[in-house]
Amino acid sequence: MTSQEVAGEQVDPTPPPQSHRVRVVVPALKAAFPFTLPIFAGFWFLGLTYGMYMNSSGFSFLYPLFMSMLIYAGSMEFITVSLLLGAFNPVQAFLMTLMINARHLFYGLSMLERFKGLGPKKVYLIYGMCDETFSINFSATIPPDIDRGWFMVWVTLLNQLYWVSGSTLGGIFGSMIHINTEGLDFAMTAMFVVIFMEQWMRDRNHTSSLLGLALSLGCLLIFGADNFIIPSMLVILAVLTLLRGRLEKYGKLGID
Predict the structure, then answer these.
(1) 3-class secondary structure for the chain?
(2) What does the pLDDT look like over 29-79, one tens digit per residue?
(3) Where are the domains of the chain?
(4) Which of 36, 214, 221, 241 has the largest count of CB atoms under 10 Å?
């Protein structure tokens, strides 16, 4: 007889249940973090470049800090510098933002199924979606024991933290940092190539991938390098919609 039993106390040998944070949130962070490392390499240096650009244009580090938090659209943030230095024209700013970021409309359509049932998390996932975050959340194979919603939240949050921290540090130390950042933006291109190759190797049927390549190349030849993205997305969406039944028949639509 133990001392606890002598004292009239009952000892429960079952260990206390783990908290929600330990069981769900932390494992999702550990699973998501490796996926975001390539983004860190590109975002941090591009963010530094953006912060230094803001600094050289005469803006306090608070501008890149809050702009990277609230706008969170890399290309548009660079363009916003010239908008802030020019005449006040909100209509032009709105139309330019819509034109540059119209591709996010297609990202949102692609993520409708994946965002179902995520509750309040969906609000931040929609707000924080960028090209790189969309690529990971759309294509990543999430382990079955990892919470899907928290995995996507961590991918989104980590990527935004990389961009915000890089932009802020560039704004703070912009006048003291003198480095050649030429070619660093290619890290983003390389990441998309890797993601495409992973999709190619994982899929059994490559019809939609080949269609995407062919249609994009056609739009590139017709519209030119500066204007082909939105037309190619429209054409790809239309063609895949028409072929949806056939693609679903072969189990190709979505992630295998």
Answers:
(1) CCHHHHCCCCCCCCCCCCCHHHHHHHHHHHHHHHHHHHHHHHHHHHHHHHHHHHHHCCCCCHHHHHHHHHCCCHHHHHHHHHHHHCCCCHHHHHHHHHHHCCHHHHHHHHCCCCCCCCCCHHHHHHHCCCHHHHHHHHHCCCCCCCCHHHHHHHHHHHHHHHHHHHHHHHHHHCCCCCCCCCCCCHHHHHHHHHHHHHHHHHCCCCHHHHHHHHHHHHHHHHHCCCCCHHHHHHHHHHHHHHCHHHHHHCCCCCCC
(2) 999 999 999 889 888 888 888 888 888 888 999 999 999 999 888 778 888
(3) 32-176, 203-256
(4) 36
